[in-house]
Amino acid sequence: MVRIICILIGYACGLFQTSYIIGKFSHIDIRDYGSGNAGTTNALRTMGKAAGALTLLGDLLKPMAAYLIVYLLFHNQYSEMWKLLCMYACAGAVFGHIFPVYLKFKGGKGIATISGLGIIFGCWQIILSGIILFVVVTALTKYVSLASILMMVMFVVEVIIFGQAGYFKLLPPPYLYEWYGIVIVVSVVAIYKHKANIVRLIHHEENKLSFSKNKVKRQPE
Question: What is the torsion angle, in degrees rounded to the nearest 10, for the CA atoms of residue 208, residue 145, residue 128 and residue 212?
Answer without folding.
Answer: 30
